[in-house]
Design brief:
single chain, alpha/beta, ten-stranded mixed β-sheet, two-stranded antiparallel sheet, 8 helices, elongated
C-alpha cells in the first residue's frame, strides 16, 4: 500500500497551514496528499459566559460542512499543484481517534498548532497534544505565519506553497544516550530531499565537580573531546548513507531545548525524537520536545521510536 502525507483539516487557520505544508511535503516526496476531517462537533473546553449550553449542530449539517471544507481544499490544491494526487476523507467521530486511525497508513501526519508569535510560540491544542502523545507514526506540527511559507521548495516553481526553503537548515536534536536510527534517518532524509544542510545539536551536562566555585578545566576539556568523538561515531554511518548531505554537528553545554529553539528561528524543519511509552498515564512527551513545541518558529517533526538498539544493516541501505 502506498503511504500518504496525511493532514488533519478542520477549517482553522492552523489546520489550513498544516495542509499547505503537507501538500508541499507530498510534492517533495512524490506521495499522495490525504486530507482528513472528523466531523463530529466538539463542544468548547470552556463554559459559556452566559452559563448557557452551546447547541450541537445536526449531524447532517456537520458532515456537509466537513465535505464542503474538504472539497474546497482539494480544488485549491489541484489548481495550485497540478499532478498532485489528493485524497479526502470525512470521518464520523471525534478528531483524536480519527486522526490516530488515519495515521496508520501515513508516511507522516501533519497537524496545525496555534501560533502566538515568536515570544510565546506554539500553543498546542488538546487534539494535537493528544494525537502527538499517542501516535506511532512521525507527526509534524505546523503553525501559521512561519518562514516556511515565504519561498518555494527547491526545484519547484512558486506556487504559494513551500515545504521548506532550500537555503534553510534542517535541525536535528540528537540524544547520544538514545541515538534512534528512525530519528536520525528521518532528519538526514529530510535534508537530502531539500538539498539543505543538516545541523545536529546535542546537549550535554558538565560534571558537578567544583573547587572554589570553578569547574575542573582539564576534566571539562576531556569530556568535551569525548562527547565530540561519540557524536562523530554516531553520525559516521549516516554520512556514508547520505554522502551529499552537509552536516554541522554541535555539542552544547546544558539542555538542548534552548539551543534547538534558537536554531529553529532560521530552520526549514526541526526534528526530534519521542520514545514510545504505551502506559495509560502521562503526557508521553519529554521536556526537550515540550520546550521546542511551545517556542519553535519552524515546523517540528516528532519521530516516535522504541528504545534504540543501534543502526542495523537494513537501516543503512541506500535511500529510495
Amino acid at each position: 500500500m502506498t503511504r500518504t502525507i496525511t493532514a488533519g483539516l478542520d477549517g482553522s487557520p492552523q489546520s489550513l497551514a498544516a495542509a499547505d505544508w503537507a501538500a508541499g511535503e507530498a510534492r517533495l516526496r512524490d506521495l499522495p496528499l490525504r486530507l482528513v476531517s472528523a466531523w463530529e462537533w466538539q463542544p468548547p473546553a470552556y463554559a459559556p459566559a452566559a452559563g448557557l449550553g452551546v447547541p450541537v449542530p445536526p449531524s447532517d449539517l456537520q458532515r456537509a460542512g466537513a465535505q464542503r471544507l474538504l472539497d474546497e481544499a482539494r480544488t485549491g490544491f489541484a489548481r495550485r499543484l497540478p499532478g498532485l494526487r489528493i485524497d479526502v476523507e470525512d470521518v464520523p467521530g471525534s478528531p483524536v481517534p480519527a486522526l490516530l486511525k488515519s495515521s496508520e497508513d501515513a508516511e507522516l501526519l501533519v497537524l496545525g498548532s496555534r501560533g502566538l508569535g515568536q515570544l510565546t510560540g506554539f500553543l498546542l491544542g488538546s487534539v494535537s497534544l493528544s494525537v502527538l502523545a499517542r501516535c506511532e507514526r512521525p507527526v509534524v506540527l505546523v503553525r501559521p505565519g512561519g518562514q516556511w511559507e515565504e519561498e518555494p521548495s527547491p526545484g519547484h516553481s512558486a506556487s504559494g506553497l513551500a515545504a521548506a526553503p532550500g537555503h534553510r537548515d534542517v535541525v536535528l536534536g540528537l540524544d547520544l544516550h538514545e541515538p534512534s536510527s528512525a530519528v536520525i534517518d528521518f532528519a538526514f532524509d529530510a535534508a537530502s530531499r531539500r538539498a539543505a544542510r543538516l545541523r545536529i545539536i546535542h546537549g550535554w551536562t558538565l560534571p558537578p565537580y567544583h573547587y572554589g566555585g570553578e569547574l575542573m578545566p582539564d576534566l571539562n576539556d576531556e569530556m568535551a573531546t569525548q562527547v565530540r568523538r561519540e557524536l562523530s561515531d554516531v553520525l559516521r554511518p549516516w554520512q556514508e548513507k547520505y554522502p551529499a548531505v552537509e552536516i554541522s554537528p554541535q555539542a552544547t553545554v546544558g539542555g538542548a531545548g534552548r539551543h534547538l529553539v534558537d536554531a529553529s528561528q532560521d530552520a526549514a524543519l526541526v526534528v526530534v525524537g519521542r520514545r514510545i511509552r504505551r502506559t495509560a498515564v502521562g503526557a508521553h512527551i519529554g521536556p526537550v520536545t515540550q520546550a521546542l513545541l511551545h517556542h519553535a518558529a519552524a515546523p517540528v517533526a516528532v519521530i516516535p521510536h522504541d528504545p534504540p538498539a543501534g543502526p542495523s544493516a537494513s537501516d543503512l541501505t541506500s535511500p529510495a
